[in-house]
Amino acid sequence: MTGDDNLYSQFVGFLKITLPLAALALMSTVFLFARAPTKETTIPYAEIEEIAREPRVSGAQISGVADDGSVIGIDAGTTRPNGDLMIIENLTATVESVNGVHIDIRAGTGEVDITSRIARLSGLARIETSNGFEMETVGITANMTTGQIISDAEIEVQAPFGALTAGQMIIETPEGDDGQVMLFQNGVRLVYTPQQ
């Protein structure tokens, strides 16, 4: 019996020494292998002054319902106020029309007149519709009150029935109608591809 007690007390004594030493070794490895201090990241004063001079919002969203019932949404990478205008960069707009057609618009830059609720997209703009139209033009004007979308320049279209170019395109809801129509005008050229 005394031999077992002696062995047990020797084991406890051994643990009293080895466990604190093991803990000390683990702690030293934490400090030994810790990462080197990283370079401090600071914002240059010129950049802070520019941000203060020109306030901006990242990831802004503007949405509304047009007179014809279409739901219009605009997402912007960055937005800057400029009087009654909101200057927008990396713009994506969506239109959910009453007749179920979904329209996606992407443009590099643009502006939204808050008073008149008119969005003007500048630069190359891409339009895709859920019924199979893919369009490219330079500049689009969208009326967020009426839901009307007008291309400012010639437009190139890939449609389910072929390809066409036109001097201008208008997407609108005629008075008394339930759905939107696309009107191509000013020198329309169509290359018809029959469906297989």
UniProtKB/TrEMBL annotation:
Upper lineage: Bacteria, Pseudomonadati, Pseudomonadota, Alphaproteobacteria, Rhodobacterales
Q: What is this protein called?
A: Lipopolysaccharide-assembly, LptC-related
Keywords, in A-Z order: Membrane, Transmembrane, Transmembrane helix
Species, as recorded: Octadecabacter ascidiaceicola
Transmembrane regions listed in the UniProt entry: 12-34
